[in-house]
Structure formats: C-alpha cells, structure tokens
Amino acid sequence: MPREENIRNDNLIIGRNPVMELLKSGREIENIMVAKGEREGSVSKILAICKQRGIVVKTVDRKKLDHMCGNANHQGVVANVPAHSYSTIDEILEYAGSKNEDPFIIICDEIEDSHNLGAIIRSAEACGAHGIIIPKRRNVGLNYVVAKTSCGALEYVRVARAVNIGSVIDELKKKNIWVYCADMDGQPWCKTDFSGGCALVVGNEGRGVGRLIKEKCDVTVSLPMCGKINSLNASVAAGIIMYEIARQRLGL
User: Fold this and answer.
1) Gap between the Cα atoms of 173 and 188, Å rounded
2) Strand 31-35 vs strand 77-80: parallel, antiparallel, or unpaired?
3) Residue 106's closest CA among 184, 152, 172, 56?
C-alpha cells in the first residue's frame, strides 16, 4: 500500500490522513480540493466534516492536483490553508475605533488573481486602511502568492472573509459608513468627497463589480481613460483611489 505523505508545498496539505488531521486540529482552512470521482472511504468523512463546518470544497481534475503537488501521492485530496490567519469584520471596525479614526475599508468583489489581491493589501497598508473584506467563495484567499506579493503588508492588514458581500455592505451602511464602487460610468474619483467612514469596493479583473453589489453602493467613482483600452488592472485602479482617500483623510 502506498505511504501517505504529509507534504507542505507553500500552503498545501496533501493526502487523506494529513487532511483529516488538519480538520481535527481546528486550524483555518481556505478550501479543500477533491479529485473528480473521489467519494469513497475517508474522503466521504472529509466531505461530511466540510459540509458541517461550511468549508469550501472544490472538485478538480486529478491532473491538476498532480501538477499542484509535484506528482506527490495526494490520494485525491488536498487542503489549502491560508498563509495568514483571518480577522473578523468587527475586529476591523474595533481597530479603527482604537485609533479614533473613521473606518476605511476595502471590499474585494471576486478578485481571482493572487497578485492583484497581494498588491491591494500592500496599497491598503500604505494608505492606512483599517482592513479588507473578501468573499468566502469565488475570491482568491490568503495564499502563499498573496502573502509574497504583499511584501510583508499582510502581517499588518486585517483581512476578513464574508459569506455574503451584499449583506456586509448593508451592515456597514447602518454604521454610517459610505460605500463607494470603483467602476465605469461613475463620477470622477478626484471630485468625490470620501470624508467620514468609507468602504471602497473593487471588482473582478474581467467583469468588474457585480450588478447587485454595485446597486447597493452609495456612489460609483471612475478613473478617466485616455488610451485605447477601457479599464485598468484592479490593483492599480484600487491603489489610485485609495491614495485619494488617504490624501483627503490627511487633509493634504
């Protein structure tokens, strides 16, 4: 019988027994990837625990797992653990309160590229944002590439996960936090008043901010496009607007 290997490749835990022990440990788990067709034996127990705890499970092609694990003996099960622990939305708001500052929050709406999220975290730290909120599903998590791209900023920026971003926006608005959507067809970013508590929503690299999320936002802000293309990289656009928010907050 082949020996199970407890291999740590950046933020991957590989093999059925190692993944089961990870579940028993109570450690945070980004998601668990299961090869197509794997549902028997200990895999069924792993899936049952994931369903009970609300852990995201992704069904993937076995060849993809082979590639991710360097052809190690993953036995059809791989767990993805975050490179840094998550905070809560309450902790982000409490941090702003501890500094006697109006909340300054970045909300990511289905950012799929790890480099983009890492760059957003780095800019958020430099601009004095109190935290970042990402959806639990359909958004890249705090993986190794995100941590590396953030160049250390992940150690200082609170990142929280939410099941429903729309509900989060509703709750923030109840706390007198204005929500700004970075998207096309909005008012100029440099002529927008960002004073008071604010949350900036940054959308998916290809689709932008989802329609339902955009409708919940108070204001849509845009950057002028003078060239042939009609949009900027998500992290670049976010960085420009974040610095405008920081400028106004500093009174410059």
Assistant:
1) 22
2) antiparallel
3) 172
Q: What is the pTM of this model?
A: 0.83
Instruction: Say which residue the tokens 């003078």 belong to.
Output: 226
Q: Average pLDDT across each block of 10 residues of the chain; the chain has 252 residues. List them in order.
A: 40 88 88 86 90 90 87 87 92 97 96 93 97 92 89 94 95 97 90 96 89 95 80 88 96 85
Residue-wise pLDDT tens digits, 43-58: 999 999 999 998 989 9
Question: Which amino acid does the sequence have at 228?
Answer: K
**Three-state secondary structure of the chain:** CCCCCCEEECCEEECHHHHHHHHHHCCCCCEEEEECCCCCCHHHHHHHHHHHHCCCEEEECHHHHHHHCCCCCCCCEEEECCCCCCECHHHHHHHHHHCCCCCEEEEECCCCCHHHHHHHHHHHHHHCCCEEEEECCCCCCCCHHHHHHCCCHHHCCCEEEECCHHHHHHHHHHCCCEEEEEEEEEEEHHHCCCCCCEEEEECECCCECCHHHHHHCCEEEECCCCCCCCCCCHHHHHHHHHHHHHHHHHCC
- Do residues 106 and 239 lie in contact, with contact meaning Cβ atoms separated by under 8 Å? no
Of 197, 195, 169, 163, which Cα lies nearest the Cα of 181?
Answer: 169
Instruction: Compute the radius of gyration of the chain from its Cα atoms.
Output: 20
Six token digits for residue 144: 């190794």
The Cα 68–Cα 46 span in angstroms is: 20
**Residue 87's beta-bridge partner residues?**
160
Residue 73, amino acid: N
